[in-house]
Amino acid sequence: MSRKAATVALTALAPISWGSTYFVTTEFLPPDRPLFTGLMRALPAGLLLLALTRKLPQGAWWWKSAVLGALNIGAFFPLLFLAAYRLPGGVAAVVGSVGPLFVVGLAALLLGDRPTVRGLLTAIAAAFGVSLVVLKAGAAFDTVGVVAGLLSSLSMSAGTVLTKRWGRPEGVGALALTGWQLASGGLVLLPVALLIEGAPPALTGTNLAGYAYLAFGNTAISYFLWFRGIERLSASSVTLLGPLSPITAAVIGWAALGQALGPVQVLGMIVAFGATLAGQLSPRPRAAKEPAKAPEPFSSAEKNGQEVSMDLEVSAVRR
């Protein structure tokens, strides 16, 4: 396996893990506490990574970490949960699947990556495939929910592109950078969760197990793999791994919750997965034009002939 293929495979584990969030939330966590759930995903994971790496931001990285944490976590989670509560799950997933299109535009603006026809078509195919997987007939649309879903996708896309643009400071590993973002994003969520949802609920052992999985497996490890992938792959390649999340959620719903999975959903999975694979292909390098060579005044044969002629003329003069 090539190094790029290994990086893609490891990065793909992040959206696959996120595809299990719905199952864990509905089966293990207390209901109607989306902001508290987002807080419990981000802050404990961020504090753990800070304790493990023992590195804090320096200089400009204080505000850069705050911006990335707000985009990737602090703003993304509340908007995502608002969309999920105002829209049917399938509609929310379709609205969120426009992320690759946002990344194409933001990468052109902030990274100078010129959008290609193949990249745009791949992003559209991914969104179409996701819609086949999750969209149900007669699904209702809510304006606030749609706007929240679009903003959540834009927030995560902007965080992805800025993470690619800024990289990380010298001597700081991806694990420390992940901890900075999770901790700052969790601190953004803390007052919002307390003001809107009030004091934390009483938690059972099942709740604690669910939160432990979300915080450490679903968030700390997954976001580390995600940010590591952003560093080593193009922004569009990483974001086109996103459709693996609703595909995973659909498979878990079918296998563990007995949800229907018909031919249309299977077709959508094939289309979305094909778009994901196409997004990992390296663009074909353009053939470099060879610089035009200056014409030689004489060919080798002409040159040899001229030299022979000159020799004869010299000989004639000597005679």
Structural class: mainly alpha
Distance between the termini: 77 Å
Dominant shape: globular
Instruction: Supply the number of helical segments.
Output: 15
Low-confidence stretches: 286-319
Task: State the major sheet.
Answer: none
Gyration radius, to the nearest Å? Answer: 28 Å
Order of helices and strands: HHHHHHHHHHHHHHH
How many strand elements? 0
Overview of this structure, please?
α6 (89-96) runs antiparallel to α8. The longest helix has 28 residues, at 205-232. Helix content is 74%, strand content 0%. It is an all-alpha fold. The protein starts with a helix and ends with a helix.
Please give the structural blueprint.
Layout: H1 3-18, H2 21-28, H3 34-53, H4 61-74, H5 76-86, H6 89-96, H7 99-110, H8 117-134, H9 143-166, H10 174-197, H11 205-232, H12 235-239, H13 244-256, H14 263-278, H15 300-318
Helix pairs in contact: 1-11, 1-13, 2-11, 3-10, 3-11, 4-9, 4-10, 5-6, 5-9, 6-8, 6-9, 7-8, 7-9, 8-14, 10-11
Based on the model shown, name its key terms.
319 residues; globular; mainly alpha
What is the compact description of this entry?
It contains 15 helices and no strands. With 319 residues, it is mainly alpha-helical.
